[in-house]
Amino acid sequence: MSELLLGPGLFPNALLRPTVEFIQRSQLSDGCIPWFSGGHADPWDHVEAAMGLAIGGEYDAAAAAYRWLKNVQLPDGSWWASYQDGVAATDGHRETNFVAYIATGLWHFYLITRDRAFLLEMWSCLEGAIDFVLAQQSRYGDINWAVDHCGQPLDDALRTGCCSIFKSLECASNIAVTLGEHRPGWRAARTQLGRALREHPERFDRTWDSKARYSMDWFYPVLTGVIPGAKGLAHLQARWREFVEPGLGCRCVADQPWVTVAESSELCLALLAAGDHARAVQVFSWLDQWRGQGGEYWTGYQLAEDLLWPDQRPTWTAAAVLLAADALTEYSPACRLFTSTNLLDDSAICASSRSSESRFL
User: Fold this and answer.
1) Which domain holds residue 313?
2) Average pLDDT over residues 253-271
3) Which residues does 113 contact at the CB level (< 8 Å), separation at least 6?
4) What is the rounded CA–CA span in Å between residue 47 and residue 62?
5) Is position 148 within any domain?
6) Is residue 1 part of a domain?
7) How far, in Å, are 70, 72, 334 from residue 330 at the CA level?
8) How many domains is the chain built from?
9) Looking at the domain assignment, is residue 2 inside a domain?
10) What's the rounded Cα separation, in Å, for the pair 74 and 79?
């Protein structure tokens, strides 16, 4: 078994350049990034893949990915859950965490490129997406996981999905500050959502079996800043043995003998966010064995059957590896996006807004 150890300043360009090229090669002419050649695309994983392109310096390709989202955005600010060859390929629902994730991608792109003009170009698209998502927030702070084909709420909340939205609201608020836009409601919604995630577990998984057996429900609160610092480290330690297979990676589901590369990569980010650099390096070192000859990565490994399963090497899995490598090596200006919380101060915008309003009183 090969091991790849990374540290600050040691981004493995030679190793991971083919990984970037794999994502770029998979991108369609309209900018859409499907899971793999001939496969479907969904808005969340599409954004994840676009972030991988940006880490690799493929800024035009990453921008094209975000413009594709702008071009296919629905009038209410949302996207369908799945697309095949640019056409909606779904039963008609739209997932809130899928819709919100464009904020994370756009902020990631800006941190690397400092292209404020591109943020301006994408602002109306972002604003529509966030307004759609926040229309699904309950008075308790949680956010409905989706709406149906008629736009009616599917009334329940996913912990992992809401954690992802929590990070996206941080990024959306930072974009608003950067563009001088006053959006206090976005910050208030983020505060309410964080409180629901930390203090009201009864608001999640109300109408289906608990998702606590999924590793994402375990580490996403740490990855997204819902549970910060030392509390995050204790949170990860409490269920470490349930989810982590030494030498292999992180299980997708605690009671299934299946480790996955994307979850392992995201666990690296959560460990870094919790200050556990040593274990983040260790987990990442196990992933090189799941790398394909063309720089892509297999979805995962089935322990009981001793086989790579399923027979897929998704673009978003490759991107998750790139995000983890970036964070471990502090390679790009966006390297700390998922390992720290950095909500920009909006006081100057607030003061300017109050001053403008006073002139009309």
Assistant:
1) 13-358
2) 98
3) 54, 59
4) 9
5) yes
6) no
7) 30, 34, 8
8) 1
9) no
10) 6
Spatial distance between the Cα atoms of 280 and 330, rounded to a whole number of angstroms: 13
Place of tokens 């307004």: 131
Please report, for the domain that includes residue 235, its CATH number.
Answer: 1.50.10.20
Say what the alpha-carbon torsion angle 222, 227, 231, 233 is, to the nearest 10 degrees.
0
For residue 123 the two structure tokens come to 């602002």
| Long-range own/partner contacts, residues 60-64 (CB < 8 A, 24 or more apart) | 61/24, 61/27, 61/31, 62/109, 63/109, 63/118, 64/27, 64/30, 64/31
297 within a domain of the structure (yes/no): yes
Q: Is 249 helix (H, G, I), strand (E, B) or coil?
A: strand
Instruction: Tell me the pLDDT tens digit for each residue of 71-114.
Output: 999 999 999 999 998 888 877 899 999 999 999 999 999 999 99
Closest alpha carbon to 352 in 113, 181, 136: 181
pTM exceeds 0.90, yes or no: yes
Residue-wise pLDDT tens digits, 168-222: 999 999 999 999 999 999 999 999 999 999 999 999 999 999 999 999 999 999 9
Residue with tokens 């999640």: 204
